[in-house]
């Protein structure tokens, strides 16, 4: 289903959830569409499971021929596995980190990406969208080596990809988080294993606190809404031990356990 995160006369942000409901082996994912003055961008549009529904729903807001960008936080399968179909059905360009520019063509037929990839340098930038612009904000190693978050200055939504993810499904994944504490058990395991290091999280928090944010919207689970919950999230992430901080010699031993086939 689709949820309007923001709408005014010329601008809208939509979130699509549970498009992969029919396959319970696949992790619940959110996909996003930003529309400004009749043109649009999809953010982290997902794999083949989500493609049909997303394209159909998008067509209610504007023709697929008006899609300017496929914006990808990183290059995981739940982000751009359906890239070939998006490049076939729309004239959109893929916007992705320079780190992944030459890996993305592996998702498509030969030559499909020629002239259709906008490679974003590590410093990020501001991408024109309709009469507005989408900020491509550095979020490297959270979790991918080349990784961006996307800030929409009109709705004041920061789309955070795999940061802020909580493991939930169905209605729970659509209910905004307004206090963080009850959700930490759904977030902690993921962030400890997927986020690269505490240093990176602290650098990100320092930068993100300077943005005027109404909503943090991750790619899995529910949006984090309002100043209270957003500040609680910043405080939590600022001191979290994660990733390489937690690994030591015990984690690098030759294997002994037999994996049952
Ligand atoms: Fe990922």
Description:
With about 260 residues, this protein is an alpha/beta fold. The chain has a single domain (about 1-245), classed as Metallo-beta-lactamase, Chain A. It contains 6 helices and 13 strands. The strands form 2 sheets. Strands 1-2-3-4-5-6-7 form a 7-stranded mixed β-sheet, with helices on one face. The chain has a 6-stranded mixed β-sheet with strand order 8-9-10-11-12-13, with helices on one face. Helix 5 (about 200-210) runs antiparallel to helix 6 (about 225-240). The longest helix has 12 residues, at about 225-240. The model has no long low-confidence stretch (mean pLDDT about 95). Bound molecules: fe (iii) ion (FE). Fe (iii) ion binds near residues 74, 76 and 143.
Question: Care to give the gist of this entry?
Answer:
By secondary structure, this protein is an alpha/beta fold.
Q: Can you give keywords for this protein?
A:
Metallo-beta-lactamase, Chain A; alpha/beta; 7-stranded mixed beta sheet; binds fe (iii) ion; 261 residues; 6 helices; single chain
SSE blueprint and pairings:
Layout: E1 2-7, E2 11-17, E3 30-36, E4 39-43, H1 48-58, E5 67-71, H2 77-80, H3 83-89, E6 93-97, E7 117-120, E8 125-129, E9 132-138, E10 148-152, E11 157-161, H4 184-194, H5 198-208, E12 215-218, E13 224-225, H6 227-238
Helix pairs in contact: 5-6
